[in-house]
Each structure stands twice: as structure tokens, then as C-alpha cells.
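Researcher: Good morning. I'm working through a list of sequences from a screen, and I'd like to move beyond sequence-only analysis. For each chain I'm collecting a predicted structure so we can compare shapes side by side. This is the next one on the list. No need for commentary yet; just the structure.
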Amino acid sequence: MKVDRKKLDLMMAKNCMGISDLESAGIPRSTINNMNRRNNELLPKTVGKIAKALGCDVTKIIED
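Model: Good morning. C-alpha cells for this chain:
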């Protein structure tokens, strides 16, 4: 699955969260860095963890 970086940034801003908050939620820094790379697929489980940390549905942060 591909995370839409703009959508992710919006959800993080909405929740007043930063990268360190995602790390605190159990998302490794390497995974966070991988989200910034173009055409990088993340495991559904990882996208689920990110969505859970943001308190949103997975569909709110993945590419259409």
C-alpha cells in the first residue's frame, strides 16, 4: 500500500502530531523515512498502525 504524503501530513497536522509521535506509536524511523520515497510500498499492517496512531481510517491516508 502507498501512503499519500499530503494526506498523511494533513492528518498529522489535524492531530497536532509530529514524526516523534509516530515513533512513539511504534512506527520505526526507517519506515517513516520510506514513506517519503516515491513508489515505496508499505505493508498493510504498517499502514494500519499509522492510521491507528492518527486515530483515522486507513482510507484517509492511502493513495486513491
